[in-house]
C-alpha cells in the first residue's frame, strides 16, 4: 500500500483527521445535546404585576414547554432596573440566565455617570419580544384637535402646557422631550411615580397632556375622558385607524415606543443563543401569544440577535441626544 511523506496510509490519515475534528467539536455537540440541563432563571428587573412581569411570565411559560425545563421568573426591581441588570451581567454565560430589558436599558447610560455594568459589552442580544407605541392624549378642555393645533397652542403660550410622566428619565418623559425638540415647543414636566397617577391628574385637568401606552389610553379615549391626538409609531395602528401618527403631522421619522427584549450574559455560546431565539420566536408567533400581544396594542417581535443589537445601538444614540438636549439630570 502506498504511503505519503508522513509514513501513513492516506486513508488512515484522513480518518484520523476526521476523528480529531469530531473530538474537538464534542463540547459543542454535548452542549447542544444537554442544554438546558437545569431550570432557567429569567431575571425581570421590574416589580410583580407590571407589563414587563406579565410579558415575561407569558413568554416564560412557552419557553418552559419547549426547553423542557422550568423557567423561574426572578423579579429584581429597583434602582431603575440597575439591580436586576447587574445581577444578570455577573451570571454565568451558559444560557441558564435570561434578562428581560426595556427601553430603560437604553436610557440609563444617558442618565447615570457610572453603571455597574456595560449595557453593550456585558450582554449578548437574543431578540426583541414586543414594542408598543405611545398615544398622545390631552384633556378635553385643551383647545386642540390635532398635533398641529397643539403645537400652535404651545408656541403661543410657552410652558403653559403641563405634561405628565411616569418619572424623571422615564420613557414617557424622554418621548415627550423628543416631541418637544422636534416641534420646537416648551412644555412643563410634571413627574409622577408611575403613569397611573399621571392619568388621574390628566383626567382631573391638573395636567394637560400625556404620552401613554395605547392600551392604558384607549379606555379613557373611548369614554371621552381624554382626547387622542396621535400615536408615535411610523404607521397607523390597525386597531386605531382613525388616530394619526406624529410623523403625519409633519415630523417625518418621529418614532418612539416602549419595548421589551431578551439578553443573555456576554460570551454565551452562539448555539445556545440560537436555541433561545428559535424557541422565543415560536412563543411569540404562537396564536395565543401573538393575539394577546396585539390585543395589548403591542407589535410582536422576533428579530435576529444582529437586528436586535443594531436596534439597541440606535436607541442608545437617540435617547442620549434627547437627554443631552433636554438637560435631563442623573437620578
Query: Order of SSEs, N→C?
Result: HEHEHEHEHEHEHEHEEHHEH
Spans of 5+ residues with little confidence (pLDDT < 50)? 1-32
Overall geometry comes to: globular
Tell me the radius of gyration. 24 Å
The percent of residues in helical segments reads 40-55%
The beta-strand count equals 10
Biggest sheet architecture? 10 strands, mixed
Distance between the termini: 78 Å
Strand content: 15-25%
Number of helical segments?
Answer: 11
Q: Structural class of the secondary elements?
A: alpha/beta
Mean pLDDT, to the nearest integer, reads 89
Notes on the protein architecture:
The radius of gyration is 24 Å and the shape is globular. It has helices at 10-34, 51-67, 82-89, 103-111, 147-156, 171-183, 195-203, 214-222, 270-285, 287-295, 305-326; strands at 40-44, 71-75, 97-102, 123-138, 162-165, 188-191, 209-213, 227-231, 257-265, 299-300. The protein has 331 residues and is an alpha/beta fold. Strands 1, 2, 3, 4, 5, 6, 7, 8, 9 and 10 form a ten-stranded mixed beta sheet that branches. Mean pLDDT is 89; it is low at 1-32. The chain contains eleven helices and ten strands.
List keywords for this structure.
single chain, alpha/beta, ten-stranded mixed β-sheet, 11 helices, 10 strands
Which helices and strands appear, and what pairs or packs with what?
Layout: H1 10-34, E1 40-44, H2 51-67, E2 71-75, H3 82-89, E3 97-102, H4 103-111, E4 123-138, H5 147-156, E5 162-165, H6 171-183, E6 188-191, H7 195-203, E7 209-213, H8 214-222, E8 227-231, E9 257-265, H9 270-285, H10 287-295, E10 299-300, H11 305-326
Parallel strand pairs: 1-2, 1-3, 5-6, 5-7
Antiparallel strand pairs: 3-9, 4-7, 4-8, 4-9, 4-10
